[in-house]
Write a structure and sequence with these properties.
The chain is built from 13 helices and 8 strands.
Protein backbone atom coordinates (compact mmCIF):
# COMPACT_ATOMS: atom_id res chain seq x y z
CA UNK A 1 0.00 0.00 0.00
CA UNK A 2 1.35 3.42 -0.87
CA UNK A 3 0.81 6.55 -2.93
CA UNK A 4 2.72 9.76 -3.32
CA UNK A 5 1.03 12.29 -5.59
CA UNK A 6 -0.01 15.92 -5.47
CA UNK A 7 -3.38 14.79 -4.11
CA UNK A 8 -2.19 12.70 -1.18
CA UNK A 9 0.49 10.75 0.64
CA UNK A 10 -0.45 7.26 1.77
CA UNK A 11 2.04 4.80 3.22
CA UNK A 12 2.63 2.40 6.08
CA UNK A 13 0.67 -0.18 8.05
CA UNK A 14 -0.86 -0.29 11.49
CA UNK A 15 -3.12 2.14 13.29
CA UNK A 16 -4.74 4.58 10.83
CA UNK A 17 -3.43 8.13 11.19
CA UNK A 18 -4.81 11.12 9.26
CA UNK A 19 -2.70 14.28 8.85
CA UNK A 20 -4.39 17.53 7.75
CA UNK A 21 -2.42 20.62 6.73
CA UNK A 22 -3.24 24.29 7.13
CA UNK A 23 -4.78 26.94 4.89
CA UNK A 24 -3.05 27.46 1.49
CA UNK A 25 -0.56 24.64 2.16
CA UNK A 26 -0.48 21.01 0.91
CA UNK A 27 0.25 17.60 2.40
CA UNK A 28 3.95 18.29 1.82
CA UNK A 29 4.15 20.37 5.00
CA UNK A 30 4.21 16.99 6.81
CA UNK A 31 7.33 15.80 4.98
CA UNK A 32 9.68 16.29 7.97
CA UNK A 33 7.67 13.81 10.07
CA UNK A 34 6.36 11.35 7.49
CA UNK A 35 9.21 8.80 7.45
CA UNK A 36 8.93 8.01 11.14
CA UNK A 37 5.14 8.06 11.23
CA UNK A 38 4.80 5.83 8.15
CA UNK A 39 7.23 3.37 9.73
CA UNK A 40 4.71 2.91 12.56
CA UNK A 41 1.24 3.60 11.18
CA UNK A 42 -1.02 3.57 8.13
CA UNK A 43 -0.63 7.25 7.31
CA UNK A 44 -2.95 9.27 5.06
CA UNK A 45 -2.04 12.91 4.38
CA UNK A 46 -4.35 14.39 1.72
CA UNK A 47 -4.17 17.79 0.09
CA UNK A 48 -7.39 19.55 1.02
CA UNK A 49 -10.07 20.47 -1.51
CA UNK A 50 -9.29 23.67 -3.39
CA UNK A 51 -5.63 23.56 -2.44
CA UNK A 52 -2.76 23.01 -4.87
CA UNK A 53 -3.01 19.43 -6.15
CA UNK A 54 -6.14 18.59 -4.16
CA UNK A 55 -9.66 17.99 -5.46
CA UNK A 56 -11.22 20.91 -7.27
CA UNK A 57 -14.10 22.73 -5.66
CA UNK A 58 -17.16 22.88 -7.87
CA UNK A 59 -18.75 26.22 -8.84
CA UNK A 60 -21.29 27.30 -6.26
CA UNK A 61 -20.08 24.75 -3.72
CA UNK A 62 -19.84 26.05 -0.16
CA UNK A 63 -16.45 25.97 1.49
CA UNK A 64 -17.08 26.73 5.12
CA UNK A 65 -15.73 24.49 7.88
CA UNK A 66 -18.55 21.87 7.78
CA UNK A 67 -18.32 21.64 3.97
CA UNK A 68 -14.54 21.22 4.10
CA UNK A 69 -15.03 18.43 6.66
CA UNK A 70 -17.50 16.78 4.28
CA UNK A 71 -14.75 16.66 1.64
CA UNK A 72 -12.33 15.06 4.10
CA UNK A 73 -14.96 12.49 5.07
CA UNK A 74 -15.33 11.57 1.40
CA UNK A 75 -11.55 11.07 1.21
CA UNK A 76 -11.64 8.88 4.32
CA UNK A 77 -14.33 6.70 2.75
CA UNK A 78 -12.42 6.47 -0.53
CA UNK A 79 -9.30 5.36 1.31
CA UNK A 80 -11.14 2.83 3.46
CA UNK A 81 -10.76 4.71 6.74
CA UNK A 82 -13.81 4.43 8.96
CA UNK A 83 -12.14 6.24 11.84
CA UNK A 84 -8.55 7.31 12.42
CA UNK A 85 -6.23 8.99 14.85
CA UNK A 86 -6.40 12.55 13.56
CA UNK A 87 -3.67 15.17 13.55
CA UNK A 88 -4.20 18.65 12.16
CA UNK A 89 -2.31 21.92 12.03
CA UNK A 90 -4.04 25.32 11.89
CA UNK A 91 -7.09 24.94 9.63
CA UNK A 92 -6.34 21.22 9.61
CA UNK A 93 -6.60 21.32 13.40
CA UNK A 94 -10.06 22.85 13.15
CA UNK A 95 -11.05 20.16 10.66
CA UNK A 96 -9.95 17.23 12.82
CA UNK A 97 -11.98 18.64 15.69
CA UNK A 98 -14.98 19.03 13.39
CA UNK A 99 -14.53 15.41 12.30
CA UNK A 100 -14.19 14.32 15.94
CA UNK A 101 -17.64 15.79 16.59
CA UNK A 102 -18.92 13.42 13.88
CA UNK A 103 -17.42 10.36 15.55
CA UNK A 104 -14.62 9.95 13.02
CA UNK A 105 -11.67 10.34 15.39
CA UNK A 106 -10.07 7.62 17.51
CA UNK A 107 -7.96 10.36 19.05
CA UNK A 108 -7.05 13.94 18.15
CA UNK A 109 -3.83 15.93 18.13
CA UNK A 110 -4.61 19.54 17.20
CA UNK A 111 -1.47 21.61 16.57
CA UNK A 112 -2.34 25.32 16.98
CA UNK A 113 -5.86 24.72 15.63
CA UNK A 114 -7.79 27.45 13.86
CA UNK A 115 -11.43 28.39 14.31
CA UNK A 116 -11.19 29.12 18.02
CA UNK A 117 -11.55 32.87 18.13
CA UNK A 118 -14.55 34.48 19.82
CA UNK A 119 -17.25 36.10 17.67
CA UNK A 120 -16.71 39.83 17.49
CA UNK A 121 -13.19 39.83 18.94
CA UNK A 122 -11.62 40.99 15.66
CA UNK A 123 -9.34 37.98 15.31
CA UNK A 124 -11.09 36.65 12.21
CA UNK A 125 -10.55 39.97 10.47
CA UNK A 126 -6.91 40.06 11.59
CA UNK A 127 -6.31 36.57 10.19
CA UNK A 128 -7.81 37.58 6.85
CA UNK A 129 -5.57 40.65 6.72
CA UNK A 130 -2.55 38.49 7.56
CA UNK A 131 -3.18 36.05 4.72
CA UNK A 132 -4.03 38.81 2.23
CA UNK A 133 -0.73 40.47 3.03
CA UNK A 134 1.19 37.20 2.79
CA UNK A 135 -0.35 36.34 -0.56
CA UNK A 136 0.30 39.82 -1.94
CA UNK A 137 3.99 39.68 -0.96
CA UNK A 138 4.34 36.15 -2.35
CA UNK A 139 2.71 37.16 -5.63
CA UNK A 140 5.06 40.12 -5.99
CA UNK A 141 8.08 37.94 -5.16
CA UNK A 142 7.08 34.94 -7.28
CA UNK A 143 9.50 35.55 -10.18
CA UNK A 144 12.43 35.65 -7.70
CA UNK A 145 11.38 32.89 -5.31
CA UNK A 146 14.12 30.46 -6.34
CA UNK A 147 16.81 33.04 -5.62
CA UNK A 148 15.15 34.26 -2.42
CA UNK A 149 14.81 30.78 -0.92
CA UNK A 150 18.32 29.66 -1.89
CA UNK A 151 20.02 31.54 0.97
CA UNK A 152 19.37 30.13 4.47
CA UNK A 153 19.10 33.41 6.37
CA UNK A 154 16.95 35.00 3.69
CA UNK A 155 14.73 31.90 3.74
CA UNK A 156 14.46 32.19 7.51
CA UNK A 157 13.38 35.82 7.21
CA UNK A 158 10.89 35.08 4.43
CA UNK A 159 9.22 32.33 6.48
CA UNK A 160 9.43 34.00 9.90
CA UNK A 161 5.67 34.41 10.32
CA UNK A 162 4.94 30.68 10.03
CA UNK A 163 8.07 29.02 11.44
CA UNK A 164 10.99 29.91 13.66
CA UNK A 165 13.66 28.00 11.77
CA UNK A 166 12.79 28.48 8.14
CA UNK A 167 16.39 27.86 7.13
CA UNK A 168 15.82 24.17 8.01
CA UNK A 169 13.26 23.83 5.23
CA UNK A 170 14.95 22.75 1.97
CA UNK A 171 14.94 25.57 -0.61
CA UNK A 172 12.85 23.54 -3.06
CA UNK A 173 10.19 22.91 -0.42
CA UNK A 174 10.15 26.57 0.61
CA UNK A 175 9.54 27.56 -3.02
CA UNK A 176 6.85 24.89 -3.39
CA UNK A 177 5.11 26.10 -0.20
CA UNK A 178 5.06 29.67 -1.47
CA UNK A 179 3.88 28.81 -4.97
CA UNK A 180 1.21 26.45 -3.66
CA UNK A 181 -0.32 29.31 -1.68
CA UNK A 182 -0.83 31.20 -4.95
CA UNK A 183 -2.59 28.18 -6.48
CA UNK A 184 -5.10 27.78 -3.69
CA UNK A 185 -8.51 28.36 -5.31
CA UNK A 186 -10.58 28.63 -2.12
CA UNK A 187 -8.88 31.69 -0.65
CA UNK A 188 -11.84 33.98 -1.22
CA UNK A 189 -14.27 31.28 -0.05
CA UNK A 190 -12.36 30.89 3.22
CA UNK A 191 -12.25 34.66 3.71
CA UNK A 192 -16.02 34.77 3.18
CA UNK A 193 -16.46 31.93 5.68
CA UNK A 194 -14.37 33.87 8.22
CA UNK A 195 -16.54 36.95 7.74
CA UNK A 196 -19.84 35.00 7.93
CA UNK A 197 -18.86 32.85 10.90
CA UNK A 198 -18.60 29.70 8.81
CA UNK A 199 -14.96 29.21 9.79
CA UNK A 200 -15.70 29.32 13.51
CA UNK A 201 -15.67 26.04 15.45
CA UNK A 202 -18.89 25.51 17.34
CA UNK A 203 -20.14 22.90 19.81
CA UNK A 204 -16.69 21.86 20.98
CA UNK A 205 -18.41 20.13 23.90
CA UNK A 206 -19.46 17.48 21.36
CA UNK A 207 -15.86 16.33 20.85
CA UNK A 208 -15.74 12.91 22.51
CA UNK A 209 -12.40 11.56 21.30
CA UNK A 210 -9.33 11.85 23.55
CA UNK A 211 -7.95 15.24 22.52
CA UNK A 212 -4.54 16.84 22.84
CA UNK A 213 -4.29 20.51 21.90
CA UNK A 214 -0.61 21.37 21.46
CA UNK A 215 0.12 25.05 20.83
CA UNK A 216 3.26 26.44 19.27
CA UNK A 217 5.00 28.68 21.79
CA UNK A 218 5.90 31.30 19.20
CA UNK A 219 2.81 31.14 17.00
CA UNK A 220 2.51 34.45 15.15
CA UNK A 221 -0.52 33.44 13.08
CA UNK A 222 -2.70 32.24 15.96
CA UNK A 223 -1.11 33.66 19.12
CA UNK A 224 -1.71 31.39 22.08
CA UNK A 225 -2.99 34.15 24.35
CA UNK A 226 -5.75 35.05 21.88
CA UNK A 227 -6.71 31.69 20.39
CA UNK A 228 -6.22 28.90 22.90
CA UNK A 229 -8.84 29.65 25.56
CA UNK A 230 -11.90 28.05 23.94
CA UNK A 231 -10.00 24.82 23.25
CA UNK A 232 -8.80 24.67 26.84
CA UNK A 233 -12.24 25.22 28.37
CA UNK A 234 -14.84 23.81 25.94
CA UNK A 235 -13.48 20.38 24.90
CA UNK A 236 -14.37 17.74 27.52
CA UNK A 237 -11.31 16.23 29.18
CA UNK A 238 -8.87 18.03 26.86
CA UNK A 239 -5.13 17.83 27.47
CA UNK A 240 -3.37 21.11 26.71
CA UNK A 241 0.33 21.53 26.14
CA UNK A 242 2.70 24.18 24.81
CA UNK A 243 5.24 23.08 22.20
CA UNK A 244 8.44 24.93 23.15
CA UNK A 245 10.58 26.84 20.70
CA UNK A 246 8.44 26.43 17.58
CA UNK A 247 6.29 28.54 15.30
CA UNK A 248 2.89 28.05 13.69
CA UNK A 249 4.02 25.12 11.49
CA UNK A 250 5.96 23.12 14.09
CA UNK A 251 6.69 20.13 11.82
CA UNK A 252 9.42 22.12 10.08
CA UNK A 253 10.85 23.72 13.21
CA UNK A 254 11.18 20.60 15.36
CA UNK A 255 10.26 17.33 13.64
CA UNK A 256 11.46 15.27 16.60
CA UNK A 257 9.15 17.11 18.99
CA UNK A 258 6.16 16.72 16.68
CA UNK A 259 6.78 13.02 15.99
CA UNK A 260 7.15 12.31 19.71
CA UNK A 261 3.98 14.28 20.49
CA UNK A 262 1.93 12.38 17.90
CA UNK A 263 3.35 8.94 18.69
CA UNK A 264 2.88 9.37 22.43
CA UNK A 265 -0.78 10.30 21.98
CA UNK A 266 -1.57 7.60 19.42
CA UNK A 267 0.10 4.92 21.53
CA UNK A 268 -1.86 5.99 24.60
CA UNK A 269 -5.08 5.53 22.63
CA UNK A 270 -4.15 2.60 20.39
CA UNK A 271 -7.27 0.67 19.38
CA UNK A 272 -9.65 3.42 20.52
CA UNK A 273 -12.71 3.69 18.26
CA UNK A 274 -11.70 0.62 16.25
CA UNK A 275 -15.13 -1.02 16.45
CA UNK A 276 -16.82 2.20 15.40
CA UNK A 277 -14.40 2.49 12.51
CA UNK A 278 -15.17 -1.00 11.30
CA UNK A 279 -18.89 -0.30 11.51
CA UNK A 280 -18.56 2.90 9.48
CA UNK A 281 -16.43 1.14 6.87
CA UNK A 282 -19.03 -1.64 6.59
CA UNK A 283 -21.83 0.89 6.09
CA UNK A 284 -19.78 2.66 3.41
CA UNK A 285 -19.07 -0.65 1.66
CA UNK A 286 -22.77 -1.60 1.65
CA UNK A 287 -23.59 1.80 0.17
CA UNK A 288 -21.00 1.34 -2.58
CA UNK A 289 -22.41 -2.11 -3.46
CA UNK A 290 -25.94 -0.74 -3.54
CA UNK A 291 -24.83 2.08 -5.85
Amino acid sequence: MGEVSSARYRAGDGEPVLLLHGFTATWRCWLPVLPELAARYDVLAPTLTGHDGGPEILPGQAHDLPAAADHVEAELEAQGFGTAHMVGNSMGGALVLELAKRGRARSVVALSPGGGWHPGDGEGERIERFFRRQLKVTRMSEPRLDAIMRRPMVRRAALRDIMRRGEQLPPSEAVALARSSLRCTVVDDVFQAIRSGGALLRDLDQVRAPTLVAWAQYDRVLPIERHAQRFRTEIPGVTFRVLPGVGHVPMSDDPRLVVDTIVDWVERHRGAGEDAGEAKAAVAARGAVAA
